[in-house]
Automatic annotation (TrEMBL):
GO terms for biological process: polysaccharide biosynthetic process; UDP-glucuronate biosynthetic process. Pfam families: UDPG_MGDP_dh, UDPG_MGDP_dh_C, UDPG_MGDP_dh_N. Keywords: NAD, Oxidoreductase. Pathway: Nucleotide-sugar biosynthesis; UDP-alpha-D-glucuronate biosynthesis; UDP-alpha-D-glucuronate from UDP-alpha-D-glucose: step 1/1. Coiled coil: none annotated. NCBIfam families: NDP-sugDHase. It comes from the Bacteria. This is UDP-glucose 6-dehydrogenase. The keyword Secreted does not apply. Belongs to the UDP-glucose/GDP-mannose dehydrogenase family. Residues 320-424 form the UDP-glucose/GDP-mannose dehydrogenase C-terminal domain. The active site is at 266 (nucleophile). GO terms for molecular function: NAD binding; UDP-glucose 6-dehydrogenase activity.
Amino acid sequence: MKITVIGTGYVGLVTGTCLAEVGNDVLCLDLDPKKIETLKAGGIPIYEPGLEDMVQRNVAAGRLHFTTDIEESVAFGQIQFIAVGTPPDEDGSADLQYVVAAARNIGRHMDDYKLVVDKSTVPVGTADKVRAALAEELARRGAAIEFNVASNPEFLKEGAAVEDFMKPDRIVIGTDSERATQLLRQLYAPFQRNHERLRVMDVRSAELTKYAANAMLATRISFMNELAVLAEKLGADIEQVRHGIGSDPRIGYDFLYAGCGYGGSCFPKDVQALRRTGQENGVPLRVLDAVEEANDAQKQILVNKLVARFGNDLEGRRFAMWGLAFKPNTDDMREAPSRTMLDALWAMGASVSAYDPAAMDETRRIYGERADLQLVDSPMDALKGADALLIVTEWKVFRSPNFDTLKSLLKAPLIFDGRNLYEPRAMREMGFDYFPIGRP
Ligand SMILES: NC(=O)c1ccc[n+]([C@@H]2O[C@H](COP(=O)([O-])OP(=O)(O)OC[C@H]3O[C@@H](n4cnc5c(N)ncnc54)[C@H](O)[C@@H]3O)[C@@H](O)[C@H]2O)c1
Ligand SMILES: O=c1ccn([C@@H]2O[C@H](COP(=O)(O)OP(=O)(O)O[C@H]3O[C@H](CO)[C@@H](O)[C@H](O)[C@H]3O)[C@@H](O)[C@H]2O)c(=O)[nH]1
């Protein structure tokens, strides 16, 4: 099939590439000429395991193309995926300007049937807005051309995006059109594996499903984070509790890890947007108010522990930070807990030496050169002469360090671990002062 994907960010690029991988002809459009140049030159503008090889393979096979030319992109695909950003507006609602602009571009240039698919995360009612924008552009041209709009939210996780797209748990399709359903059934047939993954529903339910999924996951995390704080006070171990409750199939083991807060480009923004939708409809989502409040507090937790130890005048102190990305296997730092911690440490006069396997360039882009931030080339380099180590992201490379070296490099054997990477007892036996989350 011939597919156009509008927006080549995490979602657009993964969608386009994976659809090409199963044999479709795909054209990816982005308005950012730098991204398209990079892609045309065989590189990818983001860090995502397995993606670069797949892009190169499909470009070489002639199935995957990139452009900044809107007219060309509209003409290309019968199916047009909208995968542009939907960042939070000032009031927390999703800013739909990019989605609507993409829809208008289609309406301006289409000259045969198009199925327009919202893949971006968008509030309930957005498909109606996309339909209206398209219809308006067609009316302006005096053109009567058939089109359908469907919702197909994306559930991939950064760092595992290719795997998630190729082997989805479910594929949600929201549409009231038989033609759209048939086209999307055909398109997604290669991703079904051993049983039916497609959930076809009405558009509004599909739009809400995406927010419901992210809000549910964020709720689990905030709940575990609050329990972890309580466990610490009670002398209980949140890791034992996690095993204890996860064995109940109604609860399950996944996504129950207490830590230093959730970040990323999705949970914070989507929880906010869903709360906003609730407010606009006179339905306060009190649980989500608490989820967000708990997460804001949790992002401060390592700094609070550090202040309890050193006081809040950190002038002249230096701390090592392992991990800057909001989670492992990505260079994404949007809403990353590391950023909250850096700001707090700097505000108290401390400096930081930091290492992340993928997010160093992104850190440089965000903070530029500053005297109170040293970006170093290895985990051990961050430790030299530091007052303590803060572990913020659970990259594999941090899981089994040489603890003797670690201890010899730090000023004192002190670790604040926001991701519970080590066994407290073993750490104590090795002579560390070790502060995990929710563990004795
Ligand atoms: N990142 C994720 O893990 C993830 C997962 C599921 C869903 N989502 C949702 O998918 C959407 C996209 O997220 P992302 O992380 O890929 O965003 P992103 O910011 O990485 O990429 C969006 C891209 O769209 C381009 N763009 C904007 N307007 C355009 C237009 N009119 N025409 C062509 N290109 C245009 C931008 O230049 C940018 O490259 C969001 O709604 C997000 O919530 C993201
Ligand atoms: O038990 C857990 C699991 C995750 N996290 C944190 O939660 C955040 C989000 O993690 P994750 O969900 O793995 O990353 P995202 O790439 O943001 O993916 C989420 O957001 C995407 C965008 O909407 C959705 O498509 C995915 O299904 C959804 O998992 C990160 O900061 C993690 O450190 C925890 O603290 N504890």
